[in-house]
Amino acid sequence: CPLSAAANLRPGAEQKVVFITARVHPGETPSSFVCQGIIDFLVSHHPIAKVLRDHLVFKIAPMLNPDGVYLGNYRCSLMGFDLNRHWANPSPWAHPTLHGVKELIIHMYNNPKINLEFYIDIHAHSTMMNGFMYGNIFEDEERFQRQAVFPKLLCQNAEDFSYSSTSFNRDAVKAGTGRRFLGGLLNDTSYCYTLEVSFYSYILGGAAPAVPYTEEAYMKLGRNVARTFLDYYRLNSLVEGPLAPTPKTR
């Protein structure tokens, strides 16, 4: 079951949900460390984490391809499927984890008391540096612009995240991915992203030398992803009242 974290939600109130998945490609081990950083931050005593738990519901599936991970596969499941190409019609027999997560997401989507506002699928990239995102393209220009807000805010919080490497596309080859499928399924208040992080290094800007990623650096990116939700919802007035400034996560 995905991990759920929520506290002090008013009975009967609309639930705003952030759904995060990782490790659909078993060889992309950095995604697990980024996801671990998100989880560790959200369940911590950090004041930002408490505000997020008070206002949002986080559902996290940290490993969508456990059999592939167990076998040491790079991209596929036990049965040889690239699960990130089967979101449109996952089989409960051949793609059980994907099927279960999709069923849960559709159940939430059909519940009028739940608003699934974010879906983020965490991956690792073998050729590009830094962290960056892929988003979707929409005919509605306002929706397209709103989709760019979260990665722009994340760029301010995470020195290793590159907005210039972030791109928005609707490549037909990626139609079966979580980002593409859910971006077409969910309503215009939902934002679906693929979060990518380099397997090897990041550049802080200019002609600076590349900095090798470490497990701790991946987890730090995860912590900065989590804290960016507060900036996003402050901007959109969900969180009211001042909160004392807190230093960036270490």
From TrEMBL:
Stretches assigned to the Peptidase M14 domain: 1-233
Catalytic residues in the record: E196 (proton donor/acceptor)
Cofactor(s) it depends on: Zn(2+)
Family: Belongs to the peptidase M14 family.
Molecular function as annotated in GO: metallocarboxypeptidase activity; zinc ion binding
Name used for this protein in its record: CBPC6 carboxypeptidase
A biological-process GO annotation: proteolysis
Lineage: Eukaryota, Metazoa, Chordata, Craniata, Vertebrata
Gene3D superfamilies, per the entry: Zn peptidases
SUPFAM superfamilies recorded: Zn-dependent exopeptidases
Keywords: Carboxypeptidase, Hydrolase, Protease
KW Hydrolase (keyword) present: yes
CDD domains: M14_AGBL4_like
Pfam family, one: Peptidase_M14
